[in-house]
Design goal:
InterPro entries: GmhA/DiaA, SIS_dom, SIS_dom_sf, SIS_GmhA/DiaA_subfam. Keywords: Isomerase. Residues 18-177 form the SIS domain. The protein has a 5-stranded parallel beta sheet with strand order 2-1-3-4-5, with helices on both faces. Helix 1 (8-23) packs across helix 7 (150-173), helix 2 packs parallel to helix 7 and helix 4 runs parallel beside helix 5. It is α/β, with parallel strands linked by helices. It is 50% helix and 14% strand. The protein has a single domain (8-171), classed as Glucose-6-phosphate isomerase like protein, domain 1 (Rossmann fold), CATH 3.40.50.10490. It has helices spanning 8-23, 35-48, 67-77, 82-90, 107-119, 132-135, 150-173; strands at 28-32, 60-62, 96-101, 122-128, 141-145.
Length: 183
């Protein structure tokens, strides 16, 4: 299982990189297949509408929230393209792609992350199991909840994306941490 304390450095690096992209005007583009599709929506709302008073709202969208777009793309281009197509149309190089996959082998999540990487976006993945194909895709940041039990992976992912949210805000609250010299 992903030991968040034992993975403090990779998590902090991902958060700092995300904070830099937000600081430069980027937005978070989140997506997942199946159960992680609702996690993607949860992550987006956390960033856009923080429940903690005084925390900064940051731009984020979930590519799973528009069922008409998802089914339209799936009908014409296939399910494997539902996220990659949206990224190519909606995203910019300054943005952040966060893909969520319980086993790391979701074809459409991998395709979305690869499209994001090709565009120059920061790529962050939350996976489970051994990380699957996504862990070997050459992405910027991959955080793996090392469990074969999808329920455990889901709980670790929820904790992880809340930590990501919190640490991005911590970086925003520290003067000078987002300056070019620190990056």
């Amino acid at each position: 299982m992903l030991d968040l304390a034992g993975q403090a450095e990779p998590v902090a690096r991902a958060c700092h990189a995300m904070a830099l992209r937000f600081h430069r005007g980027g937005k978070l583009v989140v997506f997942g297949n199946g159960g992680p599709s609702t996690d993607a929506q949860h992550v987006a709302v956390e960033f856009v509408h923080p429940v903690i008073v005084g925390k900064r709202a940051l731009p984020a969208i979930s590519l799973t929230a528009d069922i008409a777009t998802l089914t339209g793309i799936a009908n014409r281009a296939g399910l494997a393209e539902v996220f990659a197509h949206q990224i190519r149309i909606l995203a910019e190089p300054v943005d952040i792609a966060l893909g969520i996959s319980t086993d790391g082998n979701c074809e459409n999540v991998l395709a979305g992350l690869e499209a994001a990487s090709a565009l120059g976006m920061l790529t962050v993945a939350l996976t489970g199991g051994d990380g699957g194909l996504i862990a070997n895709a050459g992405l910027d940041h991959v955080l793996v909840a090392r469990s074969a039990d999808p329920r455990v992976v889901k709980e670790v992912h929820v904790t992880t994306y809340h930590v990501l949210w919190e640490l991005v805000h911590v970086f925003f609250e520290q003067p000078g941490v987002l300056s070019p010299e620190v990056a």
